């Protein structure tokens, strides 16, 4: 059975009553997540889990202006601090965006996407939104499978935003694993 993404609510700001204070800066910092993690560990690394054409989740397709079922480029990674996974990230790029796909797929490898995005002053990041993903959301299960056999809590906070460059759009979603709280805030 394919678990449909839960009709989640992506919020402009993390609700104070539901988000740990030490997690809030991770959900709201508009800068590079790669840079933020790098500055809080000795060894930053990216484990590439998937780089392929795939059908985005309906909410992802809607954000990118894609028809339901339309294929797009997918990149899923684990970001690790000193060998410990701290973020499961999922980037979606419309298929017609061939040049962008080259950056995302051929030219990148296990280098962090953020290194390419934030190095280009022309790239614009749209506002961040956050959501609490639980077992009703397929992305929760992607993150859970990525860190297995480590077990996850029943819900994970995530953030996402669109990046734009000359009319091309990339959706980047980042799911924070509990280990992110072991890094200095
Ligand atoms: C967008 C960034 O790139 C990070 C690295 C990613 C990758 O290598 O696939 C994906 C999402 C981000 O967590 C960033 O550093 O902010």
Describe the structure.
The protein is α+β, with helices and mostly antiparallel strands. The chain has helices spanning 24-28, 33-38, 58-64, 98-106, 113-117, 138-147, and strands at residues 44-54, 72-81, 84-94, 124-125, 129-134, 155-165, 168-176. Strands 1, 2, 3, 4, 5, 6 and 7 form a seven-stranded antiparallel beta sheet that branches. β2 (72-81) and β3 form a beta hairpin. The structure holds the ligand C=C(O[C@@H]1C=C(C(=O)O)C=C[C@H]1O)C(=O)O. Ligand ISJ binds next to α2, β2, β3, α5 and β7.
Q: What would you say about this model in short?
A:
By secondary structure, the protein is α+β, with helices and mostly antiparallel strands.
Features:
Chorismate_lyase_/UTRA_dom_sf; single chain; 23% helix; lyase activity; binds ligand ISJ; Probable chorismate pyruvate-lyase; Chorismate--pyruvate_lyase; alpha+beta; 185 residues; 7 strands; 7-stranded antiparallel beta sheet
What is the averaged pLDDT score?
Answer: 90
Characterize the main sheet: 7 strands, antiparallel
Shape: globular
Rg over CA atoms, rounded to whole Å, is: 15 Å
| Beta-strand content | 25-35%
* Structural class estimated from helices and strands: alpha+beta
Bound molecules: ligand ISJ
Number of helices: 6
Helix content: 10-25%
H/E element order: HHEHEEHHEEHEE
Outline the low-pLDDT stretches.
none
Summarize the topology:
Layout: H1 24-28, H2 33-38, E1 44-54, H3 58-64, E2 72-81, E3 84-94, H4 98-106, H5 113-117, E4 124-125, E5 129-134, H6 138-147, E6 155-165, E7 168-176
Antiparallel strand pairs: 1-2, 2-3, 3-7, 4-6, 5-6, 6-7
Family: Belongs to the UbiC family.
Catalytic activity: chorismate = 4-hydroxybenzoate + pyruvate
Enzyme class: lyase
């Amino acid at each position: 059975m394919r678990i449909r993404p839960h009709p989640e609510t992506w919020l402009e700001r993390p609700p104070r009553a539901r988000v740990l204070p030490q997690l809030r800066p991770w959900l709201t910092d508009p800068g590079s997540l790669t840079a933020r993690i790098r500055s809080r560990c000795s060894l930053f690394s990216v484990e590439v889990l998937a780089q392929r054409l795939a059908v985005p989740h309906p909410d992802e397709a809607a954000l990118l202006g894609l028809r339901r079922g339309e294929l797009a480029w997918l990149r899923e990674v684990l970001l690790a601090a000193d060998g410990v996974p701290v973020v499961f990230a999922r980037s979606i790029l419309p298929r017609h965006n061939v040049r962008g796909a080259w950056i995302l797929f051929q030219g990148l490898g296990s280098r962090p996407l953020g290194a390419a995005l934030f190095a280009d002053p022309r790239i614009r990041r749209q506002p961040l939104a956050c959501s609490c993903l639980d077992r009703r959301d397929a992305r929760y299960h992607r993150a859970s499978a990525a860190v297995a056999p480590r077990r996850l809590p029943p819900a994970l906070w995530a953030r996402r935003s669109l990046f734009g460059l000359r009319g091309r759009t990339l959706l980047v979603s980042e799911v924070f694993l509990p280990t992110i709280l072991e890094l200095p805030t």
